[in-house]
Amino acid sequence: MPELPEMEALASVLRERAVGKVVARAEPVAINALRTVSPGPGDLLGAALVDAARHGKFLDLVFAAAGGERLDLVAHLSRAGWLRWKENQPAAPGRGGRGGLAFRLVFTDGSGFDLTEAGTQKRLAVYLVRDPAEVPGVARLGIDPFDDAFTVEALAELLTAAGRAQTKGVLTDQSVLAGVGNAYSDEALWAARLSPFAPASGLGAEQVSALHAALVGVLRAAVEAAGGLAAADLKAEKKANLAVHGRTGQACPRCGDTVRQVSFADRSLQYCPTCQTGGRVLADRRMSRLLK
């Protein structure tokens, strides 16, 4: 799933390539992709893109309509969605099928982008609103890790409020922390040498400070690594720079121990036993008890 760094990079790509361009076509292709009714796609025709921003994992394209009205095209790419920029979009209307096309936007110069989604679970969502706060997922977002208000003390308060909840789950709860998902939470916990299942309120002051530094550091490094890349290259760049996430069975780049995995119904996490759990191997089942 695209997380904060990838959405930041996609927003940057669109700011560089599309700001000032005028919409010629806005085509919802997948029947369930567009989640709003009014304004409608026709209201985007003739609108100029004035900015591209990010709210957590949501991409926000800000348009000025012909009459000066603000319109926000907000997209959540979900688990298997992506944005594909094209300098020359097809002249024919978009059609669904093998490519997983969900939404197409074409500017008057022929360039534009497709929002696509792989797999059978179609969860990619597009909203056309006058204020991004009208999107339920945006309205409930917690603090952004890049916000100046996200201090060590702020993180400590969030963890304390979470009680005995597992730290991994707190980091990926979008109502607590906006933009952090499965991959970068694994990376931050590894960098901070913390177990993904450590009770959030049980972390000491030094551990909270280490987690804050790791979280912000991992995310900033990922944003910097993605800077200047085309949208098509972002996935490979992300994968190449991960230390433990998605690297089950490989050697930990810090200590050499084998990276282990805990699997759930629809996702998994990765960690290093030596670096994070005192050498103990977490049981690979939903209860996640430690093996003796």
UniProtKB/TrEMBL annotation:
The record's keywords, sorted A to Z, are:
DNA damage, DNA repair, DNA-binding, Endonuclease, Glycosidase, Hydrolase, Lyase, Metal-binding, Multifunctional enzyme, Nuclease, Zinc, Zinc-finger
The regions listed as transmembrane in this protein's record are: none
- Return one GO MF term: 8-oxo-7,8-dihydroguanine DNA N-glycosylase activity
Reactions catalysed, semicolon-separated, are: 2'-deoxyribonucleotide-(2'-deoxyribose 5'-phosphate)-2'-deoxyribonucleotide-DNA = a 3'-end 2'-deoxyribonucleotide-(2,3-dehydro-2,3-deoxyribose 5'-phosphate)-DNA + a 5'-end 5'-phospho-2'-deoxyribonucleoside-DNA + H(+); Hydrolysis of DNA containing ring-opened 7-methylguanine residues, releasing 2,6-diamino-4-hydroxy-5-(N-methyl)formamidopyrimidine
Formamidopyrimidine-DNA glycosylase catalytic domain span: 2-114
Q: Which InterPro entries match?
A: DNA_glyclase_Znf_dom_DNA_BS (IPR015887), FPG_cat (IPR012319), FPG_N (IPR035937), H2TH_FPG (IPR015886), Ribosomal_uS13-like_H2TH (IPR010979), Znf_DNA_glyclase/AP_lyase (IPR000214), Znf_FPG/IleRS (IPR010663)
The record's SUPFAM superfamilies line, in alphabetical order, gives:
Glucocorticoid receptor-like (DNA-binding domain), N-terminal domain of MutM-like DNA repair proteins, S13-like H2TH domain
Q: Which Gene3D superfamilies match?
A: 1.10.8.50, MutM-like, N-terminal (3.20.190.10)
Residue ranges of domain FPG-type in the record: 243-277
Q: Which cofactor does it need?
A: Zn(2+)
**GO aspect biological process, one term:** base-excision repair
Could you name the domain of life of the organism this protein comes from?
Answer: Bacteria
Instruction: Please give the family membership noted in the entry.
Output: Belongs to the FPG family.
- Identify this protein by name: Endonuclease VIII
Q: Which organism is it from?
A: Pseudofrankia asymbiotica
